[in-house]
Amino acid sequence: MTDAALDTDVLVVGAGPVGMTLALILAAAGRRTLLLDRRSRGAHRDDPRALALAHGARQLLTTLGAWNTDAGTPIHDIHVSQRGGFGRTLIAREEMAVAALGYVMRYRDLAAALDARLPADSLLDRAELAALRIDADAATATIRRDDAERTIRARLVVHAEGTPADGADVTLRDYRQHAVLAEVRPGAAHGHRAWERFTPDGPLALLPLGDDYSVVFTVPPEKADALMAMDDAAFLTALQAQFGPRVAFAATSPRARYPLALRLRRQLAAPREAWIGNAAQTLHPVSGQGFNLGLRDAWELAEVLLADPTGDPGDAVRLERYARGRRLDRGGGAAFTDGIVRAFSNDFPPLRIARGLGLLALDLCPPARRFVAGRMIWGARGW
Ligand SMILES: Cc1cc2nc3c(=O)[nH]c(=O)nc-3n(C[C@H](O)[C@H](O)[C@H](O)COP(=O)(O)OP(=O)(O)OC[C@H]3O[C@@H](n4cnc5c(N)ncnc54)[C@H](O)[C@@H]3O)c2cc1C
């Protein structure tokens, strides 16, 4: 088959921030790329999440011209502690010799900045991948749009559809925790400090966002039901009780919730298919690894594909190289977040003491602290 018989070289399914990033990198290098999403263009406006973006993520987004300086709030230090136990540590930007440990940005601002850079006609919205057939020389995707079906032929289909459905090709650990999200006004200026407080219910994170905190309040599902049903005053009281007196809370936005689980796709590559972002791994949000990992998936897949800019992007050897290259970073990210969630989300006294000793050791041992901070800033490797 000649290239002219194909609709595109690379079909990216899912125009979340990770899929858009890949499409932008490939399009900038002249690869024919088509992006599709089942939602209407701009639907990300309703997303309630704020994301902590690593220093490395900022560098990559800046390279793509998709870094929205006004929308990112820098994190100068991170205070880590546990409720009802001793030990705490402070990770500061000076120690890591960076201007900021990371930046907090609303998902919708991040997505809007990427969307604004997409070439005209590169995104087909309200279009859902309904079926996929893989042949030796191309993939044929059946797309459903406005109750009609059409097919798109591509050399490579990249899955960036976000969290995968349960199935044999995905390992699952259900944390039995839900994240309740809100934007909360503190009683005093936050000074660009982020807080990670571990409680037996799950981690509670405060991320500086503009003048407010983006709050990720992790609790078992029944407690999330109760938090969602409260009026604002009762919610602020519950938040204050869980967090303690170090920060006072004055007002809150409406709340949203997400169930939390670890989902890991066993294979990142198959004939003429590759997986990136949450479609490859969906992690617990503690320590803000998910999008940052997804961004590195997009970057590394693009690097592998563009190493031979005119070659077949669906070539099996090439896709296997991508999958191999991601093993360390994604395995490390998953083990890091999973280990933190499981070690900290309980009230078993010996573990509480061990955690306190761990936090104390982190506080007293700069290399260990720098290792943890480095993972949050750059992932398993530098960029
Ligand atoms: C509460 C919470 C807090 C978080 N905090 C952080 C943080 O601080 N830092 C961080 O790095 N990460 C964080 N994350 C993780 C982060 O949100 C995700 O890793 C990131 O959004 C993944 O982006 P994505 O593009 O892979 O997927 P998504 O953002 O899920 O986008 C997937 C897109 O695919 C489309 N789609 C799905 N199925 C189809 C289909 N069949 N056909 C066509 N289109 C389809 C969807 O409409 C959607 O637009 C957090 C997550 C949660 C839940």
How would you portray this structure in words?
This protein has 383 residues and is α+β, with helices and mostly antiparallel strands. It has a domain at 3-71 and 105-169 and 261-346: FAD/NAD(P)-binding domain, CATH 3.50.50.60. The protein has 10 helices and 20 strands. A hairpin with a 4-residue loop joins strand 9 (127-134) and strand 10. The mean pLDDT is 90. Flavin-adenine dinucleotide binds at residues 13-19, 36-39, 49, 51-52, 128-129, 160-162, 179, 181, 216, 258, 277-278, 285, 288-292, 294.
In short:
The chain has 383 residues and is α+β, with helices and mostly antiparallel strands. The chain has ten helices and 20 strands. Bound molecules: flavin-adenine dinucleotide.
